[in-house]
Amino acid sequence: MKRRITAEAIRQYADVSKDDSAIHLNADAAASAGFKRPIVHGMYIMGLAQSLYIREHPQQWISTYDLKFINPLYVDSDVVFNFEGTSGDVDVTVTGEDGELIASGTLTAKERL
């Protein structure tokens, strides 16, 4: 599933989460930290992945989730979430617009009771 991560979405997430770290919101701060532009919050990526999975599989719930970040995802870029499996252990990969692996891991999905 492909999604565009906009600066506005990240601003809203920063406001709600109270995580207003400058590397997520300010190009100069991101550059000072070694990034080419602001980066997306890791928890935003994790939450979006869970939301997308549940939207596609509403009969399930997620009992565990483990995602490891490999590369930053930049604000105002496209991202692809891929899920392999529909119940039990589901492999999750998050890929950036240039095909670079952003994160990978596993979630455990179970049928709702």
UniProtKB/TrEMBL annotation:
Molecular-function GO terms, alphabetical: (3R)-hydroxyacyl-[acyl-carrier-protein] dehydratase activity
Where in the numbering of this chain does the MaoC-like domain appear?
3-87
Instruction: Output the superkingdom of the source species.
Output: Bacteria
Q: Name one Pfam family in it.
A: MaoC_dehydratas
One GO BP: fatty acid biosynthetic process
Q: Which CDD domains match?
A: R_hydratase_like (cd03441)
Question: What name appears for this protein in its UniProt entry?
Answer: MaoC-like domain-containing protein
